[in-house]
Amino acid sequence: MAAQVYKVAYDFSNAEVAIDIVQMQGTNLVVLAQLPIAEGIEEVNYTPSIEREKMYGASRNPVDRTEGTADYEASITMLQYWWFYIRDVLKELGVGMFNAEFNIHYTLFKGGNVPLHTDLLYRCAIKSPEHAFKRGPENLMVPVELDPMNIYYDGVDGFGNPII
Fold first, then answer.
1. How far apart are CA 20 and CA 28, in angstroms?
2. In this structure, is residue 58 part of a structural domain?
3. Rounded distance between C-alpha atoms, residue 75 and residue 129, angstroms
4. 2 located within any domain
5. Do the bridges between strand 115-129 and strand 69-79 make them parallel or antiparallel, or are there none, so unpaired?
6. How far is Cα 32 from Cα 122, in angstroms, rounded to an integer?
7. CATH code for the domain in which residue 97 is found
8. pLDDT tens sequence across 115-126
9. Is the dihedral of CA 74, 78, 80, 86 positive or negative?
């Protein structure tokens, strides 16, 4: 049985991942291609963090803290055929794998097609795709580390800013 939050069952079968290949053109973010992927994603991980420094005055106790700098990490593990498909689309677009940027939409649904929550990994760049050629089903999966510029939860980032 899936975990329940506010009497709504959450499980991966009620989730969908869609990937947009995007590119900044001036100050506009342009979608070059949309890749809706309902299956083939084994895992999506993402973590925002903020590093703040404490400020001291004449006392040994801090008087305040800085606004800090935000950092974001993400990874996605997909079936190998999706990885090859993404590489083929990038090749058709004339975009190098390490020059590409992606918006990754992770949507949880509550029964049917009613979206409950959507998280957006904004302007992800590929850090390191991992390939291990060995026997067994693990060989069919490709884990890819990503470097997102921001993470939005239902359209708002951790600082309360709406999607640009």
1. 15
2. no
3. 9
4. no
5. unpaired
6. 15
7. 2.30.110
8. 788 999 999 999
9. negative
